[in-house]
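Handout, section B. The chain below has 198 residues.
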Amino acid sequence: MIWVISAALLLSVLVTAACNLYMIVHAGPQIYGPEKEIPSDKTAECILVLGAAVRPDGSLSPALKERVDTAVRLYHEGHAECILLSGDGAKEGYDEPEAMKRECISQGVPEEAIVCDPLGLSTFESMERAEREFGFRTVLIVTQKYHLYRSICFAETVGLAAAGVCADRQRLKTRNYIREIPARVAGVFRMIFYRKEA
């Protein structure tokens, strides 16, 4: 029994390490950030901003504010003509895309250049809906770096040509990184069994 338990633990560690390493190695070259500035001629059909927490007063959490600020900068620099705001807007009285939209407009982005997806309830759904529901083919994904590896892999799985831009300005809590480890494992299995609708 001890050998069986030990073998199972070892296997789980190896699978976890392999899934995380795959995403990091595969998506890493497509991530731009402080150490690797995005080229001025790098463009996409849209800048896809992934949702995060919105406070009860409607203001953006620090992580979400970083994402929106980065997306607005990319828009003003001409990297895309459209910003797709994807997040949870399905609950009464809680709407991440709408909160992000208000911030984008306050920073000079015209309303007609903003598309809201209130049903981007997970990273994978945000990517799938960007391709299936909104018809985009190329995207610049904006989120924190730890989240970009999984986001880019998901985007490619559903048929998007994707690159990522880091929105990191403050030091993130350790729990963000810890939660991402099993999320990548689950993500790899979702990618393996994903079947695109005809």
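Note. Residues 32 and 166 are 6 Å apart (CA to CA). Compare this with the example in section A.
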